[in-house]
Design goal:
The protein is an alpha/beta fold and about 425 residues long. It contains 14 helices and 18 strands. The strands form two sheets. Strands 7, 8, 9, 10, 11, 12, 13, 14, 15, 16, 17 and 18 form a twelve-stranded mixed beta sheet that branches. The protein has a six-stranded parallel beta sheet with strand order 3-2-1-4-5-6, sandwiched between helices. The protein is elongated and about 80 Å long.
Length: about 425
């Protein structure tokens, strides 16, 4: 336990002063009195670590607070360290040094938590200090604490979310305007929703980090970024969007974490990929750059968390919520609950996950084609749910939606289809989620 004679003033060190860090510094300064009433202690900004002193910063704080010596700052006389510099190093080393020196830590670093969260949580437990990270997943949306605390007495079955605003904006633009991927991406970049290099977003790396964190929280088991299957949205076409719409579906990039029971034990899976979901599903109505997380649990049923998933103010809001919580614990002389990893469940590979597929084929328009295609599915024991055929001249298009099946069997079916003489091309393959099997 932390000693009970906590000071009425708590020194706060801030690592990073970009968009989020600047907003945190501003709120800590301008709303100091209100934050003191909420936290039970004065939150004194003791220092701000930056990469360089040459950059001009429009912040109404004492210039002497800035330093390039982050290590000395976090190992000095500070009670709470806020880390918003991102990346793996030096963030990992600084957080470990801060915990070892007796400071509690608040971080928004999803990449680090997904890469090496186990090491950080172990260090926090050893030091008997808090390590809070609400801002690491879905910005201002409160999802970390509901999963780790509010639902701690329930059994979470599935977490499915839109956790990247950039990709949701792009797919939403493609859906509402009919634009192609490149056109929608360019618009997102012009509006500031996408970076000049959008790789981390559009290839699913950002969402995969968040999926690892969500899976670990939901299923009380260590899940790292390497355990998460990942596909981005760069291959999603306007025809995919149109095909989905014709069938009452919407294309979204989803982070999906779920429990899967087998006769011998329970497993979990974590994956990120584009998927078609019914227009009636709550996630289908999430527009623009917003995020949402849909939780299915045994006792509570279905829960939806929705809001802005990125940006300086929303992320700062989540960070400062953690800061107030950590400060209250410091004042009370306690530390908050540790991240639970007692379940130690095996994480399934994508091939062992059960899902459905939407497959679009160009085929010869002649008798026997449908039988040959159906045989390919039967050979992998994949059941077909619906088939739609549109013939035009000597060509035809088949759109097939399957029932749930093992993902590896579905993949093998697609390879069989590619080899059929009657199949001229496999136009698109996309998973279908959120509906009846």
């Amino acid at each position: 336990m932390i000693g009970s004679s906590a000071p009425r003033t708590l020194n706060v060190a801030l690592l990073g002063c970009g968009v989020v860090g600047s907003e945190i510094a501003r709120i800590l300064t301008e709303q100091a009195d209100e934050l003191e009433r909420r936290a039970g202690a004065r939150l004194r900004l003791a220092g701000i670590a930056v990469r360089t002193m040459r950059r001009q910063r429009d912040l109404a704080v004492d210039p002497d607070l800035f330093t390039t010596d982050a290590h000395s700052l976090v190992t000095g006389d500070v009670d709470i360290v806020i880390e918003v510099i991102g990346g793996i190093e030096p963030a990992r080393g600084l957080i470990l040094a801060a915990l070892e020196s007796g400071a509690s830590v608040v971080t928004a670093n999803k990449a680090l938590l997904a890469e090496d969260g186990h090491t950080l949580f172990a260090a926090a437990a050893k030091a008997d200090r808090d390590l809070d990270f609400e801002a690491a997943v879905a910005g201002a949306i409160p999802i970390v604490r509901p999963l780790s605390e509010s639902l701690a007495g329930d059994r979470v079955e599935r977490v499915m979310g839109i956790v990247n605003g950039t990709t949701n904006y792009i797919l939403d633009a493609m859906t509402t305007t009919g634009a192609g991927y490149s056109e929608a991406l360019e618009e997102a970049q012009q509006l500031g929703y996408a970076e000049a290099d959008p790789t981390a977003d559009v290839e699913g790396f950002d969402a995969a980090s968040k999926a690892a964190i969500l899976a670990g929280l939901a299923f009380h088991t260590p899940v790292a970024i390497g355990d998460v299957y990942r596909e981005g949205i760069t291959n999603v076409s306007a025809s995919d969007i149109r095909s989905a719409r014709q069938r009452g579906l919407v294309v979204k990039l989803l982070a999906i974490c779920e429990r899967q029971d087998t006769p011998d034990r329970t497993h979990v899976s974590a994956r990120v990929h584009p998927a078609m979901i019914p227009e009636s599903h709550p996630l289908a109505s999430v527009r623009g750059a917003f995020n949402a997380v849909f939780v299915e649990s045994h006792a509570a049923g279905e829960l939806m968390f929705y809001g802005p998933g990125a940006g300086g103010s929303p992320t700062a809001s989540a960070v400062l919520g953690d800061v107030v919580s950590v400060a209250r614990n410091r004042v009370a002389g306690v530390s908050g609950p540790a991240v639970a990893t007692h379940a130690q469940l095996d994480v399934l590979s994508i091939g062992d996950v059960h899902t459905r597929y939407h497959i679009s084929l160009d085929v010869d328009d002649r008798p026997g084609v449908l039988a040959a295609v159906a045989q390919a599915f039967a050979q992998e024991s994949v059941s077909i749910k619906t088939v739609l055929q549109d013939g035009h001249g000597g060509d035809a298009q088949l759109v097939i939606v399957t029932h749930q099946a093992n993902d590896s069997a579905l993949s093998a079916t697609v390879e069989r289809l590619r080899e059929l003489p009657v199949v001229r091309g496999v136009n698109s393959v996309m998973r279908v989620e959120g509906g009846q099997s």
